[in-house]
Amino acid sequence: MFDQAMARIAGRFRRVEPRATARAYLLGLLSGVERKNCWRLAEQAGHARPGPMQRLLRSARWDADSVRDEVRAYAVDHLGGDGGVLIVDETGFMKKGRASAGVQRQYTGTAGRIENSQVGVFLAYATGRGRALIDRRLYLPEHSWCTDPERRQAAGIPDEVQFATKPRLAWEMIAAALDAGVEAPWVTGDEAYGQDPQLRAALEARGTGYVLAVACSIRVRINSGRTPIRADMVADRLPEASWHRQSAGTGAKGLRYYDWAWIYIGTGEHRHLLIRRNPATRELAFYLCWSPTAAPLAELVRVAGSRWSVEECFQAAKGQVGLDHYQVRNWTSWHRHVTLAMLALAFLATVAADAAPDQPADPHHHTRGSNPISLTVPEIRHLFTAVFNPPVVSPARLLQWSNWRRRHQAAARRSHYRRRSAHEASG
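^ that's the sequence the OP posted. Answer follows.
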C-alpha cells in the first residue's frame, strides 16, 4: 500500500534522485523519529548528510501543487463515500524570529493566544470511512508581508501571491476540490469562516450546502424574513418542545449527544438557523445552514458534528507525521514539507479505513462487545515503523551525525554572538 501511495506522486518528480529522496522523506515521516526535520530524517534514512533532504524541500525541481492534487485524488479514491464533507479550518505553527514566510505575532488557536507564528489554512475531507487533509494555504498577513518586497523576496514568496483573507483561501481550496470532481455535497467550518458572507454566497452560487458556525450575536431574519433578531434571542424564545436530542457523531468516549433546534430563516425554503445545546452546561452554539434541496435535521446535525474531524487531522498530522516539525523558512519549502506530511497522513488513514471491520447496526455495540478497537492512525504508524525498521547504524555513523549537529550549532552560536557584539558596539 505504501508503494501504491508513492506511485501516485512518482511521476511528479522528473529525476530519479529527488524521487528516491521523497520516498525516504515519507518513510521518515512515518517512522518513530522524535523530530521530523531534515537532519533527523536524513540520519534515519542512512544518509551521510542532510543535503539531499534539504534540496528536496528547497531547490529540487518538482511542483508541490501537482503533488497536492495527487494527494487529494488519493484520499478521495480511498476514503470517498456518500455524504462527503469538506471542512475548512486553520492551525498555527509556532516560530521564532521574523524570517519564516508569513510569520508574525498573531492569534492562533493552537496556542490559544497571540504568539509569533505562521498560520496555515487547510481543507479536510471526511466520510464514514475516514478523514484526511487534502489542501493547504499559508496565510500571508497583509501589512507585515504583502507590502514588503524585500521581505517577500528573502522568503521566496512568488510575485503573484497577493493578500487573501482566510475565508478567501478556504474558498479557493473548496472550489479547486469541486472542480477536481470531489463529491462533497456539504461544507462546514468554524466561526471564522461562517461569519464571512462572501464565502456563504460563493457556496450557494456553486450549489454546495453548508453548515457553518457563527457567533451568537449574528442577526437572522425569522417570520418569513420580516423580523431581524439576534441568534441568541431566538434560542431564548424557543419552547422546550423545539429541542431534539441527537448524536453529533462518535467521540473518544462514545456518542456525542446534544440537544438541537432549528428554525427557518430568511425567505428561502432550505435556509435554517441550527442551534446546539449542551445537555449538562446548557452552553449554546449556532450554525447557519443552507442546502440546494431539503435536508432533515439529522443530516444538518451530522454535518455540524463532522467539523471536529479536521481537529483530529491536525492532531494526527502533528503528532504522527511531523506536520509542524519542519525547520524551513522559505515559502516553497513550507508547502513541500506540508504536502508530503499530508500524503503520509492520507496513507495512514487509508490503511485504517481498509483494516476497519464493518460497523454493527447497533449504535451501542461498544458497550457490549469485547473485541479490540479498530486500528487507529497512531497504532498503524507504530506497526509500520516496526515492520520497516532501518538498518542498524554503526557507531561511526552516529558520531558523524553528532559532529555534524554540533558543528552547525557552533556556527549558529558564533553568528548569534557576532550579531549581539555588533549591536552592543553600535549602541
